[in-house]
Amino acid sequence: MALLTVAFLPLAALVVWALARRRTATGATRPWRTSLAEVGIVYGTVPWVWMILLPGSRAGEVPGRVSLVPLRDLLTMSTPQVVGNLLVFAALGFFVPLRFAALASVPRILALAAGCSVLVEVAQFVLRLDRVSSVDDVLLNTAGAGLAALASYRWWCVPVVTRPQVTRR
Fold first, then answer.
1. Whether 100 contacts 33, CB under 8 Å
2. Among 82, 96, 131, 162, which residue is least crowded by beta carbons within 10 Å?
3. Partners of 133 in the β-ladder
4. Which strand (E) or helix (H) includes residue 93?
5. What is the Cα–Cα distance from 50 to 167, expressed in whole angstroms?
6. pTM for this structure?
7. Rounded to an integer, what distance in angstroms lies between the CA atom of residue 159 and that of residue 143?
8. Confidence band, pLDDT 50/70/90 cuts, at residue 157
9. DSSP 25-36
10. pLDDT tens-digit profile of 56-65?
């Protein structure tokens, strides 16, 4: 999956360029930022979700497994698993506030990432993909999106504008 993602990087860059050019021609505001954010959301999220939804070796044969006790699975996860779970919705957390001003707050990004993660975990269970649907995966996915949102904060935060003090003479 990593090789495919790297292989599609030139195509993603071309799509950003084409979208930005089209938006520039129509007079859109911030065409490059909007285009990069949209492509970044898709390019950075879809491969991870696809990988999560790949069936295991006994898919369809075994019932779905659920782990609802927080932090229990976390203790048994390997470092690559933890890092992978942190990265699943990181692109979403990084780019969504750049693209959608209404979602430009850390609590909203956390809510969006948690909702998306719950949907993925429910899909794993319902589709009987021979995977464990775990609350720890939801927590890590959400934390990764939140950390990524904080990493992009300087590009989407709007400084509070205060009125200048008027002094009377």
1. no
2. 162
3. 66
4. helix 90-99
5. 61
6. 0.87
7. 25
8. confident
9. HTT-SSHHHHHH
10. 888 878 778 8
